[in-house]
Amino acid sequence: MPDMLVRLYALPERRASRLGPGISIRRAMAPERGIVLAWIEERFGAGWVGEAEAAFLSTPTRIHIAVHEGRVVGFACHDVTALGFFGPTGVEESMRGQGIGEALLIESLMAMRAAGYGYAVIGGVGPADFYARAVGAVEIPDSVPGIYAGMLFPGEAPSES
Length: 161
Known about the structure:
The chain is α+β, with helices and mostly antiparallel strands. It is built from four helices and seven strands; from the N terminus they run ββααβββαβαβ.
């Protein structure tokens, strides 16, 4: 999966009003660390927990969450795998299609812009069409495997490059 590049100076406006009723997007707080990490591990696995855990190590945190009726339903991280990188991000399957992923993406990218970045990299993109439509992301040529080359995965031996 290739990396994509986003021009942070050309981001669309926040679209929180498009969210379903009772859904809010905000930066996670350190005391919520255990709750958020357990939610991520249950739905997305240990690899993403490691990145999300790194997001809690800075102040302010580098993780935004979507909350509905007092519980986490989505998250987005930035500056965790590498500086200037967005991700990982995920939304609870039953809550997809309500604009949560796009709102998390834009909120996280705006935080990166506020921190002084002009561009952001979305690493190892899955839904490329989504990122292109939502924030004008473009594919970075020859970006596979990128920074993820040689990464260890549970139960696998590292690949020889």
